[in-house]
């Protein structure tokens, strides 16, 4: 059974930095796009950033220039380096992965448990 395990959240002051990690385990098949989403109370879950296995990235406009997504395919791990954090970045951050199924198709329905990021002075 595939599991996505996140780490690295916490409390940080505005302008500070945090690095999130998410490792996928238990998959015998290939992992495609990996990404980070976030959800603040009362809001919809929104995309933060995604990265393909080849390293192509996509960012929410609100985090461009401040956040960097990267991955280590050998470790099945995706990272999110968050710099210049703002109070509006406060949310639960969720890791997502598209994992190949026995029929060859990729299912995007794999999620981590979430890690809280709070930006406050």
Structure description:
- With 121 residues, the chain is mainly beta.
- Helix content is 0%, strand content 55%.
- The protein has strands spanning 3-7, 10-12, 18-25, 31-39, 46-51, 57-59, 67-72, 77-82, 91-100, 106-111, 115-119.
- Strands 2, 4, 5, 6, 9, 10 and 11 form a 7-stranded mixed sheet that branches. The protein has a 4-stranded antiparallel sheet with strand order 1-3-8-7, with no helix packed on it.
- The protein starts with a strand and ends with a strand.
Q: What are the salient characteristics of this protein?
A:
121 residues, mainly beta, four-stranded antiparallel β-sheet, 11 strands, 0% helix, 55% strand
């Amino acid at each position: 059974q595939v599991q996505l395990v996140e780490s690295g959240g916490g409390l940080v002051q505005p302008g500070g930095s945090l690095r999130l990690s998410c490792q996928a385990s238990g998959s015998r098949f290939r992992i495609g796009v990996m990404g980070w989403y976030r959800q603040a109370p009362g809001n919809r879950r929104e995309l933060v950033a995604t990265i393909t296995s080849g390293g192509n990235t996509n960012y929410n406009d609100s985090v461009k220039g401040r956040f960097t997504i990267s991955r280590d395919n050998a470790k099945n791990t995706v990272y999110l380096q968050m710099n210049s954090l703002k109070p509006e970045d406060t949310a639960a951050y969720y890791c997502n992965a598209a994992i190949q199924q026995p029929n060859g198709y990729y299912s995007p329905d794999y999620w981590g448990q979430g890690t809280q990021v709070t930006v406050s002075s």
